[in-house]
Design goal:
There is one protein chain. This protein is 22% helix and 34% strand. It has 130 residues and is an alpha/beta fold. The chain has 2 domains: 54 residues, 2,3-Dihydroxybiphenyl 1,2-Dioxygenase, domain 1, CATH 3.10.180.10; 50 residues, 2-Layer Sandwich (Signal recognition particle alu RNA binding heterodimer, srp9/1). Strands 1-4-3-2 form a 4-stranded mixed sheet. It has a 4-stranded mixed sheet with strand order 5-8-7-6, with helices on one face. Strand 2 and strand 3 form a beta hairpin. The radius of gyration is 15 Å and the shape is globular.
Length: 130
């Protein structure tokens, strides 16, 4: 097996696509004409958004939506960049909520944390080699 998609369930797919383009510079790859699904151009593993309406029909069990007013869920979306400070600043200026400014880790990465417009925990980090 291999990881194919990370899908974030949202109220408004178009709003999520717009936010990720502005905040993280990720380009849209595909937006379904019905507006309930979109995926971003993120390499082999796709970042996608699905509306809660579609999720309610596709997922066979109830799930809890992200809530920016609550503590983040124990899931992290990590975006890799060569310039963590610039990526963090761009995300925050686009409306991401800052949680931790860029800092160096003992394992050799520079990392920062924000929450997106729906409450998803997002790490903006350097690659493991620097």
């Amino acid at each position: 097996m291999k990881l194919g998609y990370t899908i974030i369930f949202v109220d408004d797919v178009a709003e999520a696509v717009d936010f990720y383009e502005r905040a993280f510079g990720i380009e849209r790859e595909f937006v379904h004409k019905a507006g309930d699904y979109a995926q971003m151009s993120t390499g082999e593993t796709k970042l996608a958004f699905t509306s809660h309406a579609l999720g309610a029909t596709a997922v066979p069990v109830a799930y809890t939506a992200f809530d920016p007013g609550q503590t983040p869920a124990g899931v992290e979306l990590t975006l890799i960049t060569d310039d963590v400070a610039a990526g963090f600043a761009k995300a925050v200026s686009a409306g991401a909520v800052p949680l931790a400014e860029p800092h160096d880790t003992e394992w050799g990465q520079t990392v920062s944390y924000v929450r997106d417009h729906v409450g998803t925990l997002v790490s903006i980090a350097s690659g493991m080699d620097g």
